[in-house]
Design goal:
about 55 residues, transmembrane helix, mainly alpha, elongated, hydrogen ion transport, CF(0)
């Protein structure tokens, strides 16, 4: 069963994760989002209980 042999894909997986964590991630982290969230006032909704006709 070749699925259980980790030799072909283990090295590829490790190098891709190392590439991502060491090269790609530090380049992406300094970017700031263009649409920063604004400070909106939250409105509270007054909920009244439902009056069931059979109670």
């Amino acid at each position: 069963m070749p699925q259980l042999n980790p030799t072909p894909w283990l090295l590829i997986m490790l190098t891709s994760w190392l590439t991502f964590t060491l090269i790609v991630q530090p380049k992406l982290l300094p970017f700031t989002p263009t649409n920063s969230p604004s400070n909106k006032l939250t409105t509270t909704i007054n909920l009244s209980p439902w009056n069931w006709p059979w109670s």
